[in-house]
Amino acid sequence: MTVLIDEPRWQFKGRLWAHLVSDVTYEELHEFAEAAGIPRRGFHGDHYDVPQEYYDEMVARGAVPTPSRELVRRLRAAGLRLSPSQRRAAD
User: Fold this and answer.
1) Residue 83, Cα to own-chain centre: how many angstroms?
2) What is the largest CA-CA distance in the chain?
3) Are strands 15-22 and 48-51 parallel, antiparallel or unpaired?
4) pLDDT tens digits, residue range 29-66?
5) Which of 39, 48, 55, 59 is packed most tightly, with the most Cβ within 10 A?
6) Cα separation of 55 and 75, whole Å?
7) Is 61 helix (H, G, I), strand (E, B) or coil?
């Protein structure tokens, strides 16, 4: 199981957000998110948005802190990265 999380630096509606991804399968990602109590509405095609206040808990549950660029590189290498238009269509 390899679930990755980048640093919470993406600002939206007055909060900072991190991205939670799997570089193995979407199924693995959904299972991790569900077990952590992250609502499915937080899924955006190839990642979950996670508010900053949940970052430490995600790491404690086994998500591996990963720089954003490395996270995207690993998603692409696994064939799981969606283009922005594909992510919009998946929402």
Assistant:
1) 15
2) 33
3) antiparallel
4) 999 999 999 999 999 888 999 999 999 999 999 999 99
5) 48
6) 19
7) coil
Q: Which two tokens stand for residue 47?
A: 């990642």
Element of type H or E holding 18: strand 15-22
Q: Any idea what DSSP says for residue 80?
A: -
Q: Would the pTM of this model clear 0.90, i.e. be above it? A: no
Contacts of 52 (CB under 8 A, 6+ apart): 8, 15, 16, 17, 18
Tokens of 75: 């998603």
Q: Are strands 3-5 and 15-22 parallel, antiparallel or unpaired?
A: antiparallel
Q: What is the number of domains present in the chain?
A: 1
Helix (H) or strand (E) holding 58: helix 55-60
**28: which residues sit within 8 A by CB, 6+ positions away?**
1, 2, 3, 22
